[in-house]
Amino acid sequence: MHQKFEIRLATETDLPTIFSLVKSLADHVGLSHEITATEDDLGNHLFGDARYVDVLIGYVESSPVAMIIFYPGFSTFMGKPSLHIEDFYIRPEFRGCGLGTAIFKYLVKIADSRGCGKIEWYATEWNEGAIRFYQKMGACKLNERKLFRLSADAMRALMA
């Protein structure tokens, strides 16, 4: 069966859809207990005065089934802007139909239009299907980098 894809940048009216997809992603990776954000929290940073991130929503036959959340970065070594993907999610029943490739191509066009020198993201080691997909897109795994995190508690401790 041929499915029609639509991919577009999210608008404020998409906030409930985005929040629903974020909750679905958290359920999928077993991290629902870590969601502390509210729809309003997301809305402030996606569409409010504190706007910092963008979201692409992927539709199959006019149903929202995928999202990719990304934000700007900068490469000092390249002297160019970059994009960082925070979350990429496709509902499991819609994987393998080409939507992921279409979303990545759309994001690459955005990066190119913004003069970006690269797009980066993190993938969990256990998600072999995602890793294979990323490699198929031409991405390479950077083994020499490790993710570090300062939690809100650690940040408060440093400010004390």
Walk me through the topology.
Elements: E1 5-9, H1 15-28, H2 39-47, E2 54-60, E3 63-75, E4 80-90, H3 99-113, E5 118-121, H4 128-136, H5 152-159
Parallel strand pairs: 4-5
Antiparallel strand pairs: 1-2, 2-3, 3-4
Written overview of the protein:
The protein is globular, with a radius of gyration of 16 Å. Helix content is 34%, strand content 25%. The longest helix is centred in the middle third of the chain and has 15 residues, at 99-113. The protein is built from five helices and five strands. A five-stranded mixed β-sheet has the order 1-2-3-4-5, sandwiched between helices. It is of the alpha+beta class.
Low-confidence stretches: none
Q: How much is the radius of gyration in Å?
A: 16 Å
Global shape: globular
CATH architecture: 3-Layer(aba) Sandwich
Strand order of the largest sheet: 1-2-3-4-5
Largest sheet: 5 strands, mixed
CATH topology: Aminopeptidase
Helix and strand succession?
A: EHHEEEHEHH
The structural class is alpha+beta
Number of strands: 5
- Distance linking N and C termini: 60 Å
β-strand percent reads 25-35%
**CATH level 1 name:** Alpha Beta
Question: Count of DSSP helices?
Answer: 5
Q: Name the helicity range.
A: 25-40%
Number of structural domains: 1
Mean pLDDT across the residues is 92
User: In CATH, what is the homologous superfamily?
Assistant: Gcn5-related N-acetyltransferase (GNAT)
A few lines on this structure:
With 160 residues, the chain is an alpha+beta fold.
